Fold these 3 entries.
Entry 1:
Amino acid sequence: MLKAYKYRIYPTEEQKEHITKIFGCVRFVYNLGLETKIQAYTAARVNIDCFTLNKQVTDLKKDAIWLTEAPAQALQASIANLDNAYTAFFKGSGFPRFKNRYSKQAFSVPQGIMLKPEEGKVFIPKLRWIDCIFDRQFVGLIKTTTVSRTVTNKYFVSILVDNQKDLPAKAIIKEETTVGIDFGIKDLAILSDGVKFGNPKFLKQSEKRLRVEQRSLSKKHKARSKEQSKSYLKQKLVVAKLHEKIKNQRIDYLHKLTTSITKKYDTIIIEDLNVGGMMKNHCLAKAIADVSWSEMRRQLEYKSDWYGKNLLTIGRFDPSSK
């Protein structure tokens, strides 16, 4: 069974600078690989695989020596992510987009990770030992480690662990241990046995302050200048932290809700909502984004596998509320 454990790390200023360089190398390789794929398919209808791209990156290192500052496995993982995104496009997902330095940054390394929980240290190739807060312990084989930086300049390490355990067998479906969930906006989830989970509306609660901070950010913006002032960048961080707080509140509430439902019932039935289509309604888009039905469904899916429960879906045109 695979589980991910996410910890916050506190790199030094020198390590932060090196991490930023690795982010740049990984982003450059990803964008170059995407451009190469697009040109090859446009010119000759040829799909270049990840092995060919990895060989090109190896040859590129002879001229672009600065690429050697990043772990070789991190560059290969970036190419693998591109190949997965490109494959998913032909299965119905959106087309891969070029990465930029203004969004969340991350890179992955599959090997060379060492941990010292008693000392609060984690070893990452090219970065050596970094201070880390281990608030949870785990036992198992480390598969992949991902280092990320949020837009609020917080650094995290996510460790994917194989605990060498099999997923539990699914429970027998019985009527008395089965529950149906009707998603809503006024109430986030209404269960078939009458239990209701309210919608805290975290975004709406913070809208007043968010409006003030965003207005202040807009006033500090220089329309015809590529470089913004220090006060603008400082205010931009304030707005980002407020959005991050709203997101964390929503995710925490959903985790508590989905864990409670999954542990109580053996079979859970949900409706297959067309969230993307519903988001096109400008009157409801903000409210739908605030409840985050897709994230709730995602959590129910993997927690049902963890606890050996059944998760069933019914058609979006069926009378689910009845």
Entry 2:
Amino acid sequence: MISLGDAQARVHAVVAALPLVEVVVGEALGLVIAEQVVAPEAIPPFANTAMDGFAVRFADLVNASDDAPVELPVVGTVAAGAVAERPLAAGEAMRIMTGAPIPEGADAVIMVELTESDDSTVRCIAAVPEGNHIRPAGDDLQAGTVVFEPGTTITPAHIGVLSSVGRTHVAVHRRPRVGVFSTGDELVVGPVSLEPGQIRDSNRPQLLALVAEAGAEAVDLGVLRDDRDEIDAALRAAVDGCDALITSGGVSMGDFDFVKAVLAELGDLTWMQVAIKPAKPLAFGVLLGTPIFGLPGNPVSSAVSFELFARPAIRKMMGRPDTERTHEWAIADEVLARSRDGKTHFQRAVLSQESDGWHVRSAGGQGSHQLAALAAANGLAILPDGDDVNVGDRVRVMLLS
């Protein structure tokens, strides 16, 4: 067996960030900016009101109160997207809508809730300070401000900012296309009746979802039978349209584990027995420049193997700085059982944040076939080789959500 760190290092040494492309801003969520973005103009480009109300001169309302309202003539209306027809003079008011430009001569806005009005006059029942509810030009960004540096991961808020400075496209590391196969004669899809020895394919749908959650484009390549020629042809065809491939099943020591054998013939394969539980067997190779992850067939092993090897690689291909899941220390609320076997155990766990930090308990059955416990988990407890983790002990955990 080799250590987890050595296995991850072998993958890391092969995978690199994908080439840069320009994409539509609205399609860039989760990608990494590869250019410096500078604001070409002030945002907002003009002083505007943060409230519906009336544009006034604050000096006209110095003595206004509920008991002594100040009445002003309404000489115009300024809607968002319009401008005042003339400057505001002393002793006047203009009706104004949120986002509309402040008329020349006005230096405050009194919100509509502090007024009583008809078509021609407004009664103001409170004084307002100079600049009240006015958002100055450049209040968000000044022209020439560096908005984003290369390496910034794009969130919905970043998309909003890019749009606000007029960007329709942005240079990013390309989103990888990741193809996913399941392998095995025993697999069936959907609600068909199961024949003796058959099981439903859960790995492929789960891995496709994990790929999408990682930020890549997931490509469903279907189920492959335990046929050496079929697997050979499918892998050759898939590398043309994908940046990485993931298979589940066929990488252990059995007579029908053809994925490992085909990968060894077609490309540069490293087959590893990693000192972890679950997910000990891993086949990793490169075929015509395309990384291929041969993950184990047990559903929990497949998911854990994805988290430890494939997900960090996919994120690296995207240029993401956060390739790894978040790790924390947690307090065990119950005994986390294990035995000495030379492996690091990744136990499905339920994590909660309390006043004294993270707490952890088991999510249920820990067999590599027990997928329901993985669905109940929001993290993995990382148990180094040794004895049980007792109540109150601190243990490292990986957050899955």
Entry 3:
Amino acid sequence: MKAIGMAAILAMACGAAASAQTAVTHTNLQSVTSTGTSAWVESFPFAIRGVIVNDPEEMLDPAFNPDATSPSTGGQYQLFIQAFAAGDRGGTALYMSQRSYIGDHYDAATWASEMQRVMYDGNGRKFRKGDWVEVTARKALDYSGKRNINESHRTTASNDFDVALVKANAGLPQAEAIRLSDLVRADNSQIFDPSRATGGEHWQGMRVRLDGLRLTSTNGWGQSAWSNRICTATDGSNRTFRLRMPRTDLGAPPSTATVFSATGILNQEDSYTNGYELFVQELGPTLSVGTNIVGSLAVSFSADYEGYVLEASDDGLQNWSAVDVTPAKVIVIEDDSDSPTRAYRLRKVD
């Protein structure tokens, strides 16, 4: 994705909020102190721009629940936007819940109106991953080491945040490839760096691809409640890390012997100086083998898997050789082989 300057961004009309707001970067909004608390100096209202990196339904169920007795049992909405402006870095979560943490609750009609306002643009088009948006925020609370844009858990209209479309279908940012050693020390303690130059803070709120994982626990696989959707992964050393599973179906979990990659959003859920985890959106690298529109064999895989080479085997997986293509940033590869037993794999380049 081509970076553009903040001045140019602010000059774009493209459905942005009608009234001028103070522009805030993700870098500043998510700045922290040495103890992990927010270092951002509050100033409301403000405008912040980013690219949507998840569908709200992947994380939480926004449907109104008339029988809800707590925030976790009622409808919830969470959307992450990631910086795309030159000189900015990081990401920010937008959050709402049907039932408040402080006793101020939405009824069904008001909640439906709120969801319509934050999930759709003014023309009835639903926001989606890859859209560039501008958020006008009137409240933002410090939540365990990150600043969430929310409505201060109140139904008061003056606390509303608004989402305006800047550019539709601009595309997701490339997931940055990292390993557990970038997030966790050899003694299995998480790396906290208040300068945000390293460790979990460096990637908080951003799309990453975590490579070299093996599952040690599948307890959270296929669970529905946010608090239950946690699996544990290791890199084969002493390091472990939480994987927060999505509401979407990722199929069967990899075996504990399988080394895999997981792409998603690096999030911080608790503890201010640790509590980092990966919200998983995709497992990989995975290949899909089919045909193109003229019937030729086509092999496809996610464009996020740079640094991998596509290989094929024609002898029952005994010997592998490189397919004569360059897989970096290619999502469909045509292969004119007529072998009836050909198999494919992606191998990370050493």
